Amino acid sequence: MISEAEQFEKIPCIAYENSSEACRVLAVEVSSLIRERQASNKHAVLGLATGSTPVPFYRELIRLHKEEGLSFQNVITFNLDEYFGLEPEHRESYYRFMREQLFDHIDLPDSQINIPPGTVSREQVFQACRYYETKIEEAGGIDLQILGIGRTGHIGFNEPGSAEDSPTRMITLDKVTREDAARDFLGIDNVPRFALTMGVGTIIRARRIALMAWGENKADIVSKAVEDEVTDAISASFLQHHDNAQFLLDSGAASSLTRKRHPWLVGTVDWSDALIRRAVTWLSRELDKPVLKLLDEDYNEHGMSDLLTECGPAYQLNIRIFNELQHTISGWPGGKPDEDDRHRPERALPFPKRALIFAPEPSDELRALGGTIERLVEQGHTVDVVFLTSGNLGVGDSAAERFAEVLKELADVQGAEDWNTPVSYAGQLLDHLAAKGPFGEDNAALRSIKSLVRRSEARHALRACGLAEKHIHFLDLPFYETGRYRRFKPDDNDVSALCGILTKLEPHQIYMTGSASDPSSVAGVCYRLFQTAMTQTAKEAWQRDCWTWLYRSGEKPFASYEIDMAVPMSPGQLKAKLTALSQYTQEDESTGKRERAVAQYYDQLGLADYEAIEAFRLWKS
Q: Is residue 487 one of the residues assigned to a domain?
């Protein structure tokens, strides 16, 4: 039965603390289904998804198979989708993904695996899709369909505009979907434009549907699919019409549900300081009024009359929240020495501070806090930037090819025998690039060259911020060097490397990102390694005087009520940041827009009007 808090949710949602807990629960359900069918000598029919979301779920199924004897001999599987035109062994095909992530590690017979055939000719697509539907029917229909949700709200590859009764078919991929896959394919030009997918109609015929979503980046689209009206612009919203669908979410993905984000709209609440600030800033934005102009009736008409009873009248409450917001703004991110710091976000002492900035991949540091780095350096603090991974997976083949060609041409100009070895090395690189093509695996030599490309870009970018080279560190965590996007397996060696740099530098300030990211992303993996490293070094003396500030790079930006420190930027400072960032050849064009958006939030709340603001949240371990 639906509770008062869940009254806006048209699809049942269960919010877990983290994705691991959610995956364990779902894996137990799958295990029970399989064993129940085994006892009846029947097949269990599973619909399976790809992408980063189900990876921890598949790992839990593998664990159940290896450690608890769960057999998949009686299971038939049907995958949601496949890129059109990719050979099964292509490194980004979903056939290969499923092999690597699940099928090669369990005892599921090959004859019981079904994946849409991406290699059929264009003329054969229609009949192949009809045959796929027939095979599902012949298996007795899907018992449990596993889903993720895309940034456009798609399930499978059912992009905006997909009909509720759509069958398995070929579809043109949305630009946003292709952009999200660009890193996997080393550039958007390499991402297929078409895919074969189960239709919405095929999916909702499953007897049970479980949709998983992780991280705050998915929070807004989850709330729209669950709480807004059904629309073909968000194919996941059609699950509102299914009588046995459920969303399994971690705390981040659940954070935009009304009961989590605006709990005062669904019942009585205990008004903590953080919740009061959230409610007042929400009301200001909702009514498009500066905080200081909110009236008693504004609060009463928007479910906050009890807040006025506790903390009102409006005039008094408005001033309180306005002052709190004002006190987050500081041009001194390392603290201002010899000043009263009671109303400043960062303490004045010690001064100067040792600031440690962790970047999961090169460019994360400048995208989110390039202006802050420059201020810390100018204000006399010791700033060290640590790149946790080399970033070589994000470097295109063309950069390595240019390096090899320049090396060969330089040898021709020099004409000396001393160049024989470099020329041979360059030739081997070019031969490997030609042999592997745009989608083949990079060998160790090629990944090494791409790492050097990123290192060079990072050094030049940070020099533009005034940082000396001795304060630039490349940790090259092993999980990244031995893995691929969405397929990382961190271990104790990664944690040890992080503990080592923390102990060596003994920072007073740390800047870290990844708290809102998908757990299997580079930033998400790095953040969880950081948490573990901080726990393991908790008894070291430096931690007693160390604050950690979270920043957002490619993640969902902080809401205004989440910001504990706002570092303003002038037009000149923003331009300098973007100039430094231009040293990276492959950069996010949204940089600058995010910082301006934060400044606009503050302006709309009635605070000073800045060109841009870099935002941070104090980490509470």
A: yes
Identity of the amino acid at 279:
A
Integer Cα distance of 61 and 105 in angstroms: 9
Enumerate the active-site residues.
159
**What 3-state DSSP class applies to 614?**
strand
Strands 612-618 and 547-550: antiparallel
- For every residue of 417-463, DSSP letters joined together read GGGHHHHHHHHHHHHHHHHHGGGSPP-HHHHHHHHHHHHHHHHHHHH
Same domain, yes or no: 602 and 497: yes
Q: Which two tokens stand for residue 493?
A: 């060696």
In terms of domains, do 175 and 274 share one? no
Burial of 454 (0-12, 13-18, 19+ CB in 10 A): buried
Domain range for residue 126? Answer: 17-259
Q: Is residue 440 part of a domain?
A: no
Largest CA distance in the chain: 86
Choose among 604, 506, 619, 521: nearest CA to 565: 619
Counted domains in the chain:
3
pLDDT at 251 over 60: yes
Q: Is 423 part of a structural domain of the chain?
A: no
Query: With 0-12 CB in 10 A as exposed, 13-18 as middle and 19+ as buried, what is 510?
Result: buried
Distances (CA, A) of 417 to 397, 408, 411, 414, 421: 28, 13, 9, 9, 9
Token pair belonging to 31: 């295990």
Of 229, 259, 289, the residue that ends a domain is 259
- Find the helix or strand (DSSP H, E) in which 33 lies: helix 19-39
What are the phi and psi torsion angles at 492 (to 5°)? -65, -25
Q: Decide: helix, strand or coil at residue 84.
A: coil
What confidence tens digit (pLDDT) does each residue in 254-280 have? Answer: 999 999 999 999 988 999 999 999 999
| Comparison of pLDDT for 472 and 581, the residue scoring more | 472
Which ranges of 40-174 would DSSP assign to H, the alpha helix?
A: 55-68, 94-101, 125-138
**Tens digit of each residue's pLDDT (9 = 90 or more) over 63-85:** 999 999 999 999 999 999 999 99
- Whether residue 274 sits in one domain with residue 249: no
> DSSP readout, 168-212?
SEEEEPPHHHHHHHTTTTTSGGGS-SEEEE--HHHHTTSSEEEEE
Q: How far apart are CA 423 and CA 180, in angstroms?
A: 37
Distance separating alpha carbons of residues 180 and 92, to the nearest angstrom: 13
Asked if residue 421 is part of any domain, the answer here is no
- What residue type is assigned to position 500 of the chain? G
